[in-house]
Amino acid sequence: MKGFITKALHVTKQTKDIHGALRMPIYENAAYEFASSAEFSDVSLGKIAKHVYSRSSNPTVEDFELHIKSLTNALGVLALGSGMAAVTNAILTLVKAGDSVITTKYLFGHTLTFFQKTLPNMGVNVKFVNVLDEEEVKNAFDKNTRVLFLETISNPQLEVANLQNLSDIAHSHNIPFVVDTTMTPFYIFDAKKFGVDIEVLSSTKFISGGGTSVGGLIIDHGIFSWDKVELLKDYYQKAGHFAFLYRARKEIFQGLGAVLSPTNAYLQTLGLETMVLRIDRACQNALELASWLQNKKEIKNTNYPFLEESPFCELAKKQFRYAGSILTFEVESQETAYKFMDNLKIIRRATNLHDNKTLIVSPYHVIYPFNSHEEKMELNIKPNMMRLSVGIEDIEDIKEDISQALR
Ligand SMILES: *Cc1c(COP(=O)(O)O)cnc(C)c1O
After folding, report:
1. Do the domains 74-268 and 275-406 sit in the same CATH topology, yes or no?
2. Which residue from 161, 153, 378 is spatially nearest to 286, judged by alpha carbons?
3. Ligand 1 contact via 204 beta carbon (within 6 Å)
4. Which ligand 1 atom is at minimum distance from the Cα of 151?
5. CA distance linking residue 256 with residue 82, whole number of Å
6. Which pTM value belongs to this model?
7. Is 180 in the pocket of ligand 1 (CB under 6 A)?
8. How far is the CA of 21 from the centre of ligand 1 (A)?
9. pLDDT of amino acid 398
């Protein structure tokens, strides 16, 4: 069984429902009971693997995790309540007060807030670098550095860094490379092949399919030796190679209560089965639309990493199957942008990514509403720029909608 879709449908090691249901049902329950006190005690001590309480684990959520593990050939997978829970739980598993983290300012809005405000308030020093400048990244390391973090394609700038080179830099300092792959989930980007130790992503996006539910994933690809991490020493003694996942699940995730609901796990497992079909279609639509927008005289600066004009085209093609389904473009002014967006009839004004429907936002006004103009200029987010998340519609209808709105 090699094909991605076959694997998504027929997971090799799957938990069986006791009634033999062909699809794992939604187990909406909090607690599980045991045959005897001795069994209860053995399960609590971890001698027998069984579910105890649904904040810690649940059959429907576990089934979702096993699907992801099978598709990514990962060491292990932790499903969480949102993409933000995945980002924050992964980082909190690796840092304590006094440590430092290297990242970039070209991050998802709430992730940026976590690095700019939350972590510094907890005594963690965050260094922001230009990840395209590898010398600058190298120089940012010091004896307290614990993590190098970035996103595969930054949003909305759509910049692409050389992930293998950055992984090599992190590994030369015995530091794990943690990457948010939401823009390019595992069918598009083989994180393990490019040296990503911990992959985090929002399963709200391509995986859920149609924006049905919020969720997140932490994937350990099993390439980093966790005995190199002081903070995980005790966990390494207990769990060996699973030290990161052990602390992530047993201490951070269970303690913060970042649980994924069984209903959302069910919806996302269902989404996973058709993810490849939707990704193929949406990404082909995005490339076609980007090329088409380039030739529209009312539109400027169409940005999509697989366009030949993009400075990231060659690198993006080396790393990714597709450049995702997000593109940006500019019109003459902010007023024109508002008028254009209000004239659209099919494309929806909404902030999600990777919905089946094509969505549009003005990142300047909607995603970063409370940042100063100067900050937004520093992040290269302009008032006349719009971001499209291209859906799976018949692309001629989307082109026609854009044409009529421009008129
Ligand atoms: C959406 C998104 C997140 C956050 O995911 P939620 O499921 O909304 O919490 C994190 N990173 C990136 C790159 C995203 O696009």
Report:
1. no
2. 153
3. yes
4. 13
5. 13
6. 0.97
7. yes
8. 32
9. 98
Query: pLDDT tens, 141-196?
Result: 999 999 999 999 999 999 999 999 999 999 999 999 999 999 999 999 999 999 99
- Provide the sign of the torsion angle of the four alpha carbons 357, 358, 361, 363, taken in this order: positive
Q: Please state the atom number of ligand 1 nearest to the C-alpha of residue 87.
A: 10
For the chain, how many residues are written? Answer: 407
pLDDT score, position 1: 77
**DSSP strand E in 285-380: where?**
300-303, 326-330, 348-349, 359-361
- DSSP states of 119-146: HHHTT-EEEE--TT-HHHHHHH--TTEE
Gap between the Cα atoms of 99 and 79, Å rounded: 26
**pLDDT at position 12:** 66
212 CB under 6 A from ligand 1? no
Sheet arrangement for strand 326-330: 300-303, 326-330, 385-389, 359-361, 348-349
Residue 13: what pLDDT?
A: 67
Q: Where are the domains of the chain?
A: 74-268, 275-406
What token pair was written down for 331?
């019109």
Distance of CA 304 to the CA centre of its chain: 19
Which residue(s) pair with 361 in the sheet? 387
Which residue stretches of the chain have pLDDT < 50?
none
Question: Is the Cβ atom of 324 under 6 angstroms away from ligand 1?
Answer: no
Residue range 74-268 forms a domain whose CATH class is alpha beta
Q: Which fold has domain 275-406?
A: Aspartate Aminotransferase, domain 1 (3.90.1150)
Structure tokens at 222: 């099993």
Sign of CA dihedral 84, 88, 90, 91: positive
For ligand 1, atom 5: residue with the closest CA? 83
> Which value, in Å, is the radius of gyration of the alpha carbons in the chain?
22
Mean of the per-residue pLDDT values for the chain?
A: 95
